[in-house]
Amino acid sequence: MKPNWILTLLFLLGLAAFVWWGDAHLDRFIWRILNFGAIYALGAVGYTMINGVTGQFSLGPHGFMLLGGYLTTLFMLPLHQKKVVWLFTPLSWPFNQFTLPYWGFILALLAGGVLAVLAALVVGIPALRALRGDYLAIATFGFGEIIYVLACNFMGLTNGPMGIKGIPQYTNLAWSVGALVVLTYAAVRLKNSSFGRALRAIREDELAAESMGINVFRHKLLAFMFSAFCAGVAGGLMACLIGTITPDLFRFFMTFYLLMIIVLGGLGSISGAVVAGFIFAAIFEALRFVDTAVVPGTRMVVFAVLLILVMLFFRRGLFGREEFTWDWLLGGAKRAWRWAWARRS
Amino acid sequence: MDTYLQQLLNGVTLGSLYALIAIGYTMVYGILRLINFAHGDVFMWAGYWVFFLVALFHLPWWLGAVCAVVITALMGVTIERVAYRPLREAPRISLLITAIGVSFLLENLIIVLPWASGRQKPYPTPNFMIQIYQAGSVRIQGVTIWVPLIAAACLLGLIFLVYRTKVGRAMRAIATDIETTALMGADINRVISYTFLVGSALAAVGGILWGCRYPRLQWDLGIMPGWRAFTAAVIGGIGNIVGAMLGGFLLGLAEILVVAFLPGLSGFRDAFIFAILIFFLLFKPTGILGKPLKEKV
User: Fold this and answer.
1) Residues of B with CB under 8 A from a CB of A
2) What angle do CA B256, B262, B265 make, to 5 degrees?
3) Chain A residues inside the 8 Å CB shell of B119
């Protein structure tokens, strides 16, 4: 136990040093990929809590990301930019009165997460009580689409399909990786607590879990709220990374990306979601040449085929339901060393 | 009065299109308990097949349409064979994820294909669909007459197939209890292939007629009609074929009436569809005609 604790601390220190160095010196292209990777990973960590750990299939994270992204934007957009963007319909009160300085970014992100949690309560209380399996998937998907339609129509808050531009690009590795580390830590602690064991019991057999005295609905709802919070924060980070948002940025394909990530990482594995999030962002950029060389959209064909292939032949994903542990890494290194030692010539 | 009649006819036209698509959802759900996400995209592909065959290969329209139905039906069977059958024993959620993957694949293939390449394409509409018939003071376009007639013929054929033939009996048996039916000696895989064949063929007919009604082809053409048809299937009671037809007509009529008489709300049209869907899932998951499903322990 003890050496693992030290290893974790060392890893975090190294990560902090890398982030500090990376924000200043890293090549902008790689810096951007890493930011996207961290944001996708953050969304995926939340998503795998409800989809993988609890086994309740939600298809709504794009709706939560939209809420988080827009609320963060409304908080952070400078006042003069607000005047430029909302030309036809004036921006609603109270957002036309104020804007937050840089230090307020954390408040804006938290507000985005909280708004997503409130939405999760509105959806989750009826849906998680009554529905499971694919019906739950459809209901959450419908929620995401309703949010999209509302975002297109409430011009006074969202500026409709034209979107919002000129968002201050505050997101950097410190913010995105910081949020990822904090929420991943929370997710791992949740998964390994009695609460997390209850979630896994619900995934394995809901009726059995209920007869063991687990309040199934309450556990599902809390997991759903956690996943919504992660998605909301991820949406806010993404808005302030890209600098421009439209409702189309948060359509179903965003959920498709997150679904790919958690399937690739292994449904139910938090460390799998983190690793796969970065892998996904890297592949996504690496395949950009296909889009420019062949036809725009080829990337999505590749991803769709990849998802089908993973589901057909590699359903375990990278990590299965296991988590990354230092013991696993050290044990693996030891075995590899012995193997190489035995085969030395 | 004429406006009402006109709108009523429009509603019936749209409703019969929804009914044709909804059949595929409801049959597959009845048998595999799978929400076939890719069904709306199969529907979209049918329109593109007509475009490929008629506009690019210059086949006569009727021949192109027939070929498109056959090709699309085979597409449905292939999807089931390649992507769904290997997961028959897997958790149902895996099946749903694969279906989402297939749906994205079909949509993005259209974006990528050089002959379709993303932009909107004009749909080759035959003359008898555009021609306008005059009956008294009511002017009716060919589409409004032919679409419900063709749809009704297909639906009657389907009812005959399901309730009067051996394959149909096997389908109904599998929908009730798949293991017992297998023990009785029915070839489960063959019957499921037939189900996808029939469902996709009806969606293809729907897609071809849809093109005559709304002659513009685009990659996302299948998404919203697909969801509306799925909503129709849920309203009628998912798994119930007659219910899907009924739900389709109800939804088509409701949509036309809302758009015609409350035009201010048409921006929220899609949100209403999903609100209806969620409402039914929450409060009447068995729909109007469905039988309650017992929880299996």
Assistant:
1) 33-35, 83, 86-87, 90, 92-94, 96-98, 100-102, 104-105, 107-109, 111-112, 114, 117-118, 227, 230, 267-268, 270-271, 274-275, 277-278, 281-282, 285, 295, 297
2) 95
3) none
Query: Which pLDDT does position B117 carry in this prediction?
Result: 62
Tell whether B238 is covered by a domain. yes
Q: Classify residue B6: in a domain, yes or no.
A: yes
Tally the residues of chain A: 345
Q: How many domains does chain B have?
A: 1
Q: Across all residues in chain B, what is the average pLDDT?
A: 87
Q: Of B94, B230, B275, which has the smallest distance from its Cβ to A311's Cβ?
A: B94
Query: Which positions of chain A have pLDDT values less than 70?
Result: 1-3, 345
CA A261 – CA A44 distance, rounded (Å): 7
Which domain CATH number covers B73?
1.10.3470
ipTM score for this prediction: 0.88
Is B30 inside any structural domain? yes
Question: Would you place residue B209 in the very low, low, confident or very high pLDDT band (cuts 50, 70, 90)?
Answer: very high
Q: For residue range B73-119, what is the model confidence (pLDDT) as tens digits?
A: 999 999 999 999 999 888 888 899 999 999 999 998 988 887 766 56
Report CB contact under 8 Å: B100, A153.
no
Count of A–B CB contacts within 8 Å?
A: 113
Domain that includes residue B223, residue range:
2-283
Quick check: is B104 in a domain?
Answer: yes
Q: Where are the domains of chain A?
A: 11-251
Chain A 57-76, CB below 8 Å of chain B: which residues?
Answer: 57
With beta carbons less than 8 A apart as the criterion, state whether A75 and A122 touch: no
Q: Does A246 touch chain B (CB under 8 A)?
A: no
B297: pLDDT confidence band, cut at 50, 70 and 90?
very low
Q: What string of DSSP letters covers B102-148?
A: HHHHHHHHHHH-TTT-SS-EE----HHHH-EEEETTEEEEHHHHHHH
Distance CA B78, CA B215 (A): 27
